[in-house]
Amino acid sequence: MWQFILTGIAVLIGFIFVLVFMKFIGIWxxxxxxxxxxxxxxxxxxxxxxxxPALIIDTRITAAKAGLLYETDPLEAHYLAGGNIAHxxxxxxxxxxxxxxxTYDRACAIxxxxxxxxxxxxxxxxxxxxxxxxxxxxxxxxxxAVARDGIQLRARARVxxxxxxxxxxxxATEETIIARVNEGIVTSIGSALSHKDVLENPDHIxxxxxxxxxxxxxxxxxxxxxxxxxxxxxNIGATLQMSQAEADKHVAQAKAEVRRAAAVATEQEMAAxxxxxxxKVVEAEAQIPLAISEAFRNGHLGVMDxxxxxxxxxxxDMRESIAGDTDDSGGGGDKQH
Length: 337
What we know:
The protein is an alpha+beta fold. It contains 12 helices and 4 strands; from the N terminus they run H-H-H-H-H-H-H-E-E-E-H-H-H-E-H-H. 67% of the residues lie in helices and 11% in strands. The C terminus is likely disordered.
């Protein structure tokens, strides 16, 4: 019985060994032929750790053929971290051929940094080898700026950059480069005395922008800034002056309206005072008959005196009437004459 059991176990182990051998024999032979040997147990361990052995071995073979030999453990570690080992190895090969210093750890860090952004570490290395061109502000638009003489200029720039691999991890992206270049162009145009100076020497803008060190703390190194196009826009200064003059006119009109309202109020107040004084005169005149009656009663005024007073008043009214008629007739006579 024990012999049958031992024989069955041996047959099962042999069968499992044959299955493992058949599963990994192709990869094992491929690694051996490429002079990058790896043990069968290592392949089985990769499989148990859910790491594709074919990917690891093929990537290792690619690196070895390019003169870069890496052990399987670093490749497995980067794969388990969620990285793309194929792009990492290709980026290392490209950097080595171009003479760019790039370590495996740095390449892995860059690969993990760009994960989810739609970019790869291979693109970063290629940009470092072959500089890329960034349009500012992008999308075919132009940057609006106003010179000191009030004329608006609309400019478009092309920025040539290459990847700074030593600052790629943690460095600012293309959006920061575009924003800084836009700011530099606006500042340079705004400091120009005349828009004609900018049109005559647009290269002065690029020189001033480059002097500002816009690539600091970014993942890129700015090689050149070229002003692709400059157009003349509106006369912003004149527009602002017209707006200011219109605003001043409204303010002056408002102040004049306040003064007019104050004058009208003063006129109404004086009219009210005039009516008040006339009322006082009428009141005072109303006291005259009372005073005459009092004088009669007290014996200070006689009948003859009163009649003389009445004659004087009638004579005065007649003179005033004659004087008024004379003025009218004189005016009429002048008109007839």
